[in-house]
Design goal:
The protein is mostly beta strands. The protein contains 6 helices and 25 strands. It has helices at residues 2-18, 24-31, 38-49, 90-95, 344-350, 398-406; strands spanning 60-72, 78-80, 86-88, 100-112, 116-120, 125-131, 136-137, 147-149, 156-158, 162-166, 181-187, 192-199, 206-213, 220-227, 234-236, 239-244, 256-259, 265-267, 298-302, 309-314, 319-324, 332-337, 360-365, 376-378, 383-394. The relative contact order is 0.14.
Length: 409
Amino acid sequence: MGIILFQIFQRLMEILLAEDGLHPQKRSNMILPMFRSPFAVALWVVALTSPLQAMRADAFACTQSEVSLTYVRYEFAVQKDAQGVPVMDWKRFRQAPERVVTRPRRAVILENAYLKATLIPSMGRVHSLIHPGSGREQLWINPVAIPLGANNDTGFWMTWGGIEHVMPSREHGTSHALKWDGHIVTDTSQEKRVRMQTVEPLTGLKHQIDYAIRPKDPFLHAHIQVSNPHPHPVRFSHWTTSTLAPGGGRQVSPRTELVVPAKAFVPDERDFNDWMPPLVGPTETSPLKWVGQWKSIGDLMATPLLQGFYGVYAHERREGLLRVFPLDKTPGFDIWGWGYPPTEARMREFTRAIPSMGYIELWNGNVHGFSEEALTTIAPGRTLSWTESLKVVSELELPLMESMAHHLP
């Protein structure tokens, strides 16, 4: 049975990859090692062949649109330094009266029968991901975003919510504050693709993200490319940061489960994690797999991932998300939470829409940790590229996802 499933899966993947314009065998050889487990094969077969149920089978569109962002005004306190990095002047920000504003941003909506993704190309981010079958939002979108202090070269991070891709070092890098160029590159009956690109000012690395969908594919694909145009090597890190509240409640729920294919959770060595040690242990049984068991803010890591994915599933709403990535390219993993429920003081650190249960934030990256020593190197003239994929997970698929994570070699 396992061999038959694998052959079905391999054929499906070859069909999908052939539409990419790349040689199927070359791409299959890169991706298939991530899914040798029969559980993984079964999950992908379900994902690629699941019935559309109430969803519109003919939905396949790429539409230019607009979204409104509501936030505490901060731009007046941000200026570029000599290297072109946008840096927050916290003294200036705190001295000014706090004012909430709503501003429009151009957006592009990618939609098929399985998902509706709203991108903000000028910010290099995914703003929204809705499951058409239920009409529910899967990401956390901050009703009133605010800047908070961050350990990076900009000195801040805006709590917009959604998904972002950040370089070149530490937490959120500089990419979160940069202006990105974005445009639609493919709009055919076979594929819809939006490209977002920028140049990271500290390293000069070219950063490109292509988001793409296909008609019969339940995944939103992020094709990531980092290029070094210099005649010398450059050290950097790349992280995908996802702020999640799956199931449509607009805030994370206590029975949200973290499905992590590692042997054990490991708390990061930070003072505020002092409540975590009694709760860590195997990822299958640790109380920390449940968001409702997070007693305070925390930064949680894990022993090395054994497969290239993670899942987040809200049992109250019977929906969740699966993120798949090549483990050889992005082995790093981290989870951030505000505690459940967060105190009002903690809520005020990430939003002005009080009360809020907030979100759970998952990171996957090409390095382990956020120290300077952890950075990797890209050689002169080289380009690194890989694909990360995201899909909504139903109640039917949850046991398969859990089996993938916990029946490990």
